[in-house]
Amino acid sequence: MNLTISGHHLEVTSAIREYVQNKLERVTRHFDQVIDIAVILTVDNLKEKEKRQKAEINLRMSGKTVYVESLSQDLYAAIDTLIDKLDRQVMKYKNKVQQHGHDAIKHIPDSYEPAAAAV
């Protein structure tokens, strides 16, 4: 798994990097077929007194790419909500993949005999 953490208008410190890595362990624990993760942390300086902190992530899995973004006034809060959203989407995809393989068995009739079908 490749992990890229970058910052726009922000220097990514080791504390921020460790915080993101610790939070991403939750996602990789639920679904281990992650190929690539790209995290972008942004600080938007607005003319108002408030600063907007933005965290976005692109997560490539086998068969799907998930994009999630989160806005907050605090960068750590933005990261927390980002990971929550990402975890929900990954779990939804994982359940979909697991259930997809078992649906075909339900449609086989009870009186199905492999020897009779081969004739």
Automatic annotation (TrEMBL):
One of its GO terms (biological process) is negative regulation of translational elongation. InterPro entries: HPF/YfiA_ribosome-assoc, RHF-like, RHF/RaiA. One of its GO terms (molecular function) is ribosomal small subunit binding. Keywords: Translation regulation. One of its GO terms (cellular component) is cytosolic small ribosomal subunit. Associates exclusively with 100S ribosomes, which are dimers of 70S ribosomes. Belongs to the HPF/YfiA ribosome-associated protein family. Short HPF subfamily. This is Ribosome hibernation promoting factor. The gene is raiA.
